[in-house]
Design a protein that fits this description.
182 residues; alpha+beta; 3-stranded antiparallel β-sheet; 8 strands; elongated
Length: 182
């Protein structure tokens, strides 16, 4: 083992000062450290997405999931009377609303889905308009998301193509599925 007296006095002085600085730094660190504090308890849940529908211009309370749609006798080129319905976001987050129609119900009908234009108008979330076949995939309303606890009074109209010919033709009953996504 090498004795400290064999080192240069300058190296011994630097080593001694370094050791003292390390010791003082450790003591200072220990004296400036706080006691632990806690943020808790933390509780997390997912938000709720819920959409209700109602007939007419006021949404009923609760989560109604179905209501009767339009029944109309169409004249080529003339829009039907506007049929009112209501959508209500009963969840906890704003929702982008889509509309979709199952096309399987149109197989073998007298009136083709390409002959009927469906217009869905909701003042705050926008207007969708297209032939029934264009609703095969979900179509998103172009306006603002449907806010929570803000029922939206909407209307539905149907127009038979002006080029359609024939009388006593029918289009099988179909559902419009509305879905809300965050």
């Amino acid at each position: 083992m090498v004795g400290l007296h064999k080192f240069n006095p300058m190296v011994r002085a630097i080593g001694t000062v370094g050791a003292i600085a390390a010791l003082v730094g450790g003591i200072t660190y220990a004296s400036l450290q706080t006691d632990p504090v806690t943020l808790g308890p933390n509780t997390l849940t997912s938000a709720t997405a819920a959409l209700a529908i109602g007939a007419g211009t006021s949404c009923p309370g609760g989560n109604t999931t179905t209501t009767t749609g339009i029944t109309a006798s169409l004249v080529p080129g003339v829009p039907s009377a506007a049929f009112p319905f209501c959508l209500d976001n009963t969840g906890g987050v704003p929702l982008n609303i889509t509309a979709q129609i199952d096309q399987s119900v149109f197989v073998g009908t007298d009136i083709l889905p390409t002959d009927v234009t469906l217009t869905l108008t909701c003042p705050h979330i926008g207007t969708l308009s297209g032939t029934l076949d264009q609703y095969a995939s979900p179509v998103t309303f172009p306006g603002a998301p449907l806010a929570t606890a803000s029922p939206e009074n909407c209307t539905e109209t149907a127009t038979l193509a002006s080029s359609f010919t024939g009388s006593n033709k029918t289009l099988d009953a179909f559902d419009i599925s509305f879905v809300g996504n965050q």
